[in-house]
Write a structure and sequence with these properties.
Blueprint (H helix, E strand, L loop, with lengths): L1 E7 L5 E7 L3 E2 L11 E3 L5 E4 L30 E3 L10 E3 L14 H4 L5
Antiparallel strand pairs: 1-2, 3-5, 4-5, 6-7
Keywords: Disulfide bond, Lipoprotein, Receptor
Protein name: Low-density lipoprotein receptor class A domain-containing protein 1 isoform X3
Pfam families: LDLRAD1_C (PF25241)
Length: 117
């Protein structure tokens, strides 16, 4: 999948560049066995199977993390369940982000309710 990533230089100027991440758009390479590939909510996008249920929004629409599509288990012990404001996460954030004086959950529960790492 391609994502736009802002890149800054030493003077603070920002340019955007497209970086290719694992997975992709379009047809799955024929050399890959089907068990290594997972399709995203957008049928034109795919990821590697081990990227499902890893807590990170690899598909861009959270379809690799959401139940019932992927049957992902609930947040594990190293995660806090909330509605993240960070695009990278879908339903949980790493507990290492709790109580760091920065809002990561829409309800601020990462700062006031989460017990921390």
């Amino acid at each position: 999948m391609n994502k736009i990533v802002p890149q800054g230089d030493f003077n603070g100027n920002v340019a955007t560049e497209t970086k290719t991440l694992p997975g992709g758009k379009g047809a799955v390479p024929q050399s890959l066995p089907s068990f290594l590939v997972a399709h995203c909510g957008n049928p034109a996008s795919w990821i590697y199977s081990d990227q499902r249920c890893d807590g990170v929004n690899n598909c861009g629409d959270c379809s690799d993390e959401l139940i019932p599509v992927t049957m992902c288990p609930p947040c594990g012990p190293g995660w806090w369940h909330c509605t993240p404001i960070v695009f990278k996460y879908c339903e949980c954030i790493p507990r290492s982000l709790c109580r760091d004086h920065t809002q990561h959950c829409s309800d601020w529960s990462d700062e006031y309710s989460c017990p921390g790492p």
